[in-house]
Write a structure and sequence with these properties.
By secondary structure, this protein is an alpha+beta fold. The chain contains 5 helices and 11 strands, in the order E-H-E-H-E-H-H-E-E-E-E-E-E-E-E-H. The strands form 3 sheets. Strands 2-8-5-10-3 form a 5-stranded antiparallel β-sheet. Strands 1-7-6-9 form a 4-stranded antiparallel β-sheet. The longest helix has 12 residues.
């Protein structure tokens, strides 16, 4: 995985959006934001993913294939929904099996976007309460395992003044040492 500040220039969201000079983000900075990354070679994932699930108390797993072929007529609508800035009330764990894409996370308190370029073998854990979004790269094809604590679900809560009061958002900000008015 490669992490860097998103350039915020208009254009296709599926492009790198990393203007020169690139501003990389360290693994330490990601940890400060409670964003975790681990490299697991695809050949080892069938052994490692169950171990991680047990460590983190996850009971369910499914596979998602985000592609024009795989999603058909709903592809464009899904990509648009995934790229709307949102948060979840559960952490989001993705393990990339094939293809490539980008997870963008909001850095707090700066509110800058950090782009996380993911490829096969990348395991990414995005904490509950962090604003983020997702898109494929220009090949429009990524396959990932999704891990869930309970029944598989994907409930996005789009960013709004109300989400700033969401208990998971407030808890996230407190966990990284950012005071909030709602806290």
């Amino acid at each position: 995985m490669r992490a860097y500040y998103y350039d915020n220039l208009p254009g296709d969201q599926r492009l790198l959006h990393d203007s020169p000079p690139s501003t990389p983000i360290s693994a330490e900075r990601l940890k400060e934001l409670n964003v975790y990354y681990k490299r697991i070679p695809v050949a080892e994932h069938e052994r490692e993913i169950p171990r991680i699930m047990a460590e983190r108390g996850y009971k369910n797993i499914d596979k998602i294939h985000v592609s024009k072929e795989g999603l058909g007529e709903v592809y464009e609508a899904k990509i648009k929904a995934f790229f709307d800035e949102h948060l979840h009330e559960d952490e989001e764990i993705r393990y990339i099996l094939s293809g490539a894409g980008f997870f963008d996370v909001r850095e707090s308190p700066s509110d800058n976007w950090i782009r996380l370029a993911v490829e096969p073998g990348d395991l990414l854990i995005i904490p509950a309460g962090i604003y983020h979004r997702f898109t494929t790269d220009v090949k429009d094809d990524i396959e990932a395992l999704r891990l869930f604590q309970d029944a598989p679900k994907w409930i996005a809560i789009n960013r709004s003044p109300e989400t700033e009061k969401n208990e998971h958002r407030v808890g996230y900000l407190q966990s990284i040492g950012v005071a909030t008015a709602a806290a």
